[in-house]
Amino acid sequence: MCIMKILIVDDNKDITDLISKYLNLNDHECHVANDGRNGLNLIESQNHDVVLLDVSMPEFSGIDIVNTIAKKDKSALRKIILFTASSVASSEIDKLLGLGVHSCLKKPMDPDELISYLKTFEEKNIALQQ
Amino acid sequence: MDNSQKQIIVITLFLIIGVSTSIAYFNWQISEDQKKLIINHKQNRVNILQASIHERFSSHIKIIEETLLHSIHTKFSETDKINPELNGVPEFMEIDQRQELRNLLESNPRFESIGLFLPNGDIYLAEPFLSQLNLPQKNYAFRDWYVGAINTAGVYVSEPYETHYTNEKTIALSAAIRDGENIVGIFHTTLQLDFLRKLIDVQIQEPETMWYFVDENGKIGMARGDQTEYDEAFFSKLIHSLDSDGGYLQEEFFGKEQLVVYEASELGTKDWFLFLIQPSKQAFTPIVAAQYLTQSLLIVSIVVISGFGYIVFWQNTKNITIRKQLEKSNQKLSLMLEKSHEVDREKEEFSAMITHELKTPLVPILGHIKMLSKKDMIGNLNEEQLDSVQVIERNAKRLEKLINDIMDARKLDIDKMKFDIDDVVLDEFLANLKSNYQEVLNKKHIKFVLDNQVKGMTLNTDADRIRQVFGNLISNAIKFVPSDGGKITVGATKKEDFIQFYVKDNGIGISKDKQSHLFQKFYQVDTTHTRKIQGTGLGLVICKGIIEKLGGSIWVESDGKNGSTFFFTLPIKRA
Question: Are the CB atoms for B45 and B276 separated by under 8 Å?
Answer without folding.
Answer: yes
